[in-house]
Every structure is written in C-alpha cells, then in structure tokens.
C-alpha cells in the first residue's frame, strides 16, 4: 500500500471475496461487518492520499468474538446472550482502529471460551483449513482459521489455557501470549459481566498473524496499560530482545512432559527447531537443574485454572462438586482428581496455590539468568478430529494410538501461563498427514521482544509454514 501498488479497498474487497467464497466450509467469520469494513478501507485510502500513515493503516483484520465491537453482537457462544450488542469498542479494538486497521468482522469461539475446539449453538463449528474433519483449536480457533485461510492479515485473540497458541499450532500461523498484565483487557468480557478494567489472574489478550514480523507489529499496537487505571501514570517501554542474531541465543529445548507423552509429529517439530538453532551456533541444552518441576507445575496450573473457572457456579452445582470431591481417595493424585478438588477450593486453598506459584516464578527468574528462551510443545499432538461430546471430561486425546484424558493436553500451555510468562507460537513443520505443527518459545517476564525476535529469526531460518496468501490484483500502472 505504501508503494501504491495496492489500495486498502483492493485488499478489503479481496479478503471479503475470499470469505464469501470459502468460509461456508471453514466457518471462521461468525459476525461479518463488510459494509463498515469497506467504508473504513475507503477512509484509509483517503488518509494515505493526503500523506497520512499509521502502523496498520488500511490493513484488513479480524477480531475474536469475545471482544466488544460497537454495533456487533458479543455472545461468547452463549445462546442466552445472542442479542447482546455493546455500544462501545473494547480497548484493543479501539487501538486497532486508531492504528488504521480495517475490521472485517468477528471470529468464532467455543461456548464460554472454555474448550480446545471452537463450536457453539449460535455460530456452529469452525473447521481446520488443512483438514475440515479436524478442529481449528480454541478458544481463538476462528481467528487462527481465518488467518490460515487468508481472511485478513492479522487477528486478535485471548489466552488462558493456550487459546492463542493452540489454534496457531493447529492452523500453521503465529500467535503471542504476552506477559500477564502487559496488555489491557477491558472490553474482552463475558456479556453477563460489566465492562470494567479487571486484572485477570491467568488470562491475557494477544496478537495473531501470518508472519513473525507482523506479529511483533500488532503486539506493539496492542501493548500498554488501560487508560482508566495504571495508564494514568504509566506507559510501556519494553527492553529490546536479548540478542539480534540466532547464534547468540541460549535456549533450553524440552519435548518430554511427565504427565502426558509427546506425540511423534510434535517431537519431530521440536527437534527441527533445535537443529536449526544449533546449526546457527546457538547454545542448545536439553536439560537443566534450574527448570521448575513440571509435574508440580501441571498440578499448580490445574488448581489455579479450574478453581477460577467455576467461581460463579450456581450453589446447587457447587454442592454437587463438593460431594464428588469429598468422595475421592486421598491417594488419587491424578490431574482429573486435581481438577475436581480445585473446583471446590476454599480461599485458603487458593492462597496456598498462589504462594507456590510465586515460588515457581522465582525459579523461572533464575532459569532465565542462564537461558534466554525455552522451546517446547504447545500441545502433544497436531489438530485432532472434532469431538463434541457434551461432557468434556468424557473426551479423550489420542497420542500416537494411546488415549489420555482430554484436558491433560493443557499442561504444556500451563508451562508459560502459570508464571505469567510470554510465549510465542511458531509454525515448525508438518505432520505425516500434512497438518501444521508448531512449537512455543517461552521467554522472561516483561521481555516479550526476546521470544518475538527469536520467532522472527527462526522463520528466516526454517521458512515458517506459510498458509495460502491473499491473491491481490495489483493495479495497472
């Protein structure tokens, strides 16, 4: 656009045409906003013609359904809220528009954002662009599928249990889970809740893109505190990446977790990244005594995640959970048992878990004195077939022919989520079936540019995993 070879109207019309042609099968765009998008594209071209510019001026983007966009429904997939239409944009939507972005519409999510898949009664099922019989991931599955299908260049999502990273891994795109508290979240709220500048315990909002460089660009647009709270006194100036050359990085590479095995396709992707790092001269280690105990980390993450997820359960439902939890054997230390016990945590229980989290955070600080980043899986497998069993606890995950509890796949996401660390999802190859496979680069807290820069350098080294591009017709000179 800056070169004058293509206009925002060109890009927007091409993206809309692609959506209208292909999204009937993918079902990524659940709330289109094409008329306002075309009007915004015309305004962007007028601004550019007058010599104006902006970080995202005229760039077509999508927004995860859970963000408030004035005039569009925000339902979180909940049928009882299908008519909820907010009057104001979320903070991050406002920042997109202020940067000049053209919002094409909203992308699909699971019910209440609480699944590793994206389907709900209102908007149906989002399929994986690479295999329609498989999930695109969740809860930012619609955004990842939209990017992989060429429905815009950027999207914004959120992450509590890998909801940015898992869909990116399943669909072959990039995503960044920022340091906890770094990006303002106001307006990314369930329709039953007031729009307040709440600080979440684990959840973050973050960028998604088709390239690592674009991911960093969108991150800069989103970064910064809420103007209603700490933004009154503070601004964000993040340190630069620790290194600018691939060979200068010190990286700990992990592919084994004590709770659940890593599938062969994911293990191969991790090895591919490790070989690229070592081949470029980076210091690569496979083990470190500084690494916090992964079993304890998985238990702690499960406790914090599930105690928060049921905090507003009806009293009768809570009482049933309490009865079930009381019936567990004291010797049962499985994650299934941990989940059930966490659902009926007392405040004292939560405080004890939070204290142990602080100990883990301190351990991570020590580790990042020795290493610059940790490379590890996002989930144990590539995208799996759709599974809409109404009881998620009855679902299973197939890892190389062996079944495991469905929610055990979240433990790799928890590696970064529990201590609030930044983590960048990077495409790293394909499975034997041709499915995308990604890895995550976990970095030090409030040093988000380190994993983002490492992602960009790895993209240059291993070529990324480019989904189909927008087929934009260039204007005749």
UniProtKB/TrEMBL annotation:
Check the record and name the Gene3D superfamilies matching this protein: Amidase signature (AS) domain
Q: Where is the Amidase domain?
A: 10-450
The record's listing under InterPro entries reads: Amidase_CS, Amidase_dom, AS_sf, FAAH2
Recorded hits in NCBIfam families, A to Z, give: PRK06170.1 (NF004816)
What PANTHER family does the annotation carry? FATTY-ACID AMIDE HYDROLASE, FATTY-ACID AMIDE HYDROLASE 2
Q: What is this protein called?
A: Amidase
The species this protein belongs to is Lentzea cavernae
Q: Name the encoding gene, please.
A: amiE
């Amino acid at each position: 656009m800056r070169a004058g070879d293509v206009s925002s109207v060109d890009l927007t019309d091409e993206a809309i045409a692609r959506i209208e042609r292909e999204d009937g099968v993918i079902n990524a765009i659940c709330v289109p906003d094409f008329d306002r998008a075309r009007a915004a594209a015309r305004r962007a071209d007028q601004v550019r013609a007058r010599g104006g510019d902006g970080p995202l001026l005229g760039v077509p983007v999508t927004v995860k359904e859970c963000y408030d966009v004035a005039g569009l429904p925000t339902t979180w997939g909940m049928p009882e809220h299908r008519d909820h239409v907010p009057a104001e944009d979320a903070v991050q939507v406002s920042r997109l528009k202020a940067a000049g972005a053209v919002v094409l519409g909203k992308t699909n999510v699971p019910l209440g954002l609480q699944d590793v898949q994206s389907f709900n009664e209102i908007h149906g099922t989002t399929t994986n662009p690479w295999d329609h019989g498989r999930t695109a991931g969740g809860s930012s599955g619609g955004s990842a599928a939209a990017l992989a299908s060429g429905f815009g260049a950027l999207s914004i999502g959120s992450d509590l249990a890998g909801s940015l990273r898992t869909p990116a891994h399943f669909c072959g795109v990039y995503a960044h889970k920022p340091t906890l508290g770094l990006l303002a979240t106001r307006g990314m709220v369930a329709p039953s809740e007031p729009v307040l500048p709440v600080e979440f315990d684990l959840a973050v909002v973050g960028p998604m893109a088709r390239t690592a460089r674009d991911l960093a660009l969108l991150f800069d647009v989103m970064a910064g505190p809420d103007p209603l709270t700490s933004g009154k006194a503070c601004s964000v100036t993040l340190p630069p990446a620790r290194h600018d050359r691939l060979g200068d990085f010190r990286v700990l590479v992990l592919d084994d977790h004590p709770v659940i095995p890593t599938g062969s396709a994911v293990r191969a992707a991790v090895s591919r990244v490790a070989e690229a790092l070592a081949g470029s001269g980076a210091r690569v280690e496979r083990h470190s005594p500084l690494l916090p105990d992964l079993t304890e980390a998985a238990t702690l993450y499960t406790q914090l995640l599930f105690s928060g997820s049921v905090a507003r359960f009806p009293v009768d439902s809570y009482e049933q959970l309490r009865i079930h939890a009381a019936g567990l054997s004291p010797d049962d230390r499985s994650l299934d048992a941990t989940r059930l016990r966490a659902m009926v945590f007392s405040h004292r229980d939560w405080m004890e878990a939070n204290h142990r989290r602080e100990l883990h955070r301190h351990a991570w600080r020590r580790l990042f004195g020795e290493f610059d980043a940790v490379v590890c899986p996002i989930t144990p497998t590539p995208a799996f077939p759709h599974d809409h069993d109404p009881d998620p606890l009855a679902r299973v995950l197939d890892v190389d022919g062996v079944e495991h509890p469905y929610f055990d796949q979240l433990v790799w996401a928890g590696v970064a989520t529990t201590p609030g660390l930044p983590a960048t999802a990077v495409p790293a190859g394909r499975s034997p079936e041709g499915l995308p496979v990604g890895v995550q680069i976990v970095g030090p807290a409030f040093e988000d540019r380190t994993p983002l820069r490492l992602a960009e350098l790895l993209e240059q080294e291993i070529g990324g995993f480019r989904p189909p591009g927008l087929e934009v017709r260039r204007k005749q000179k």
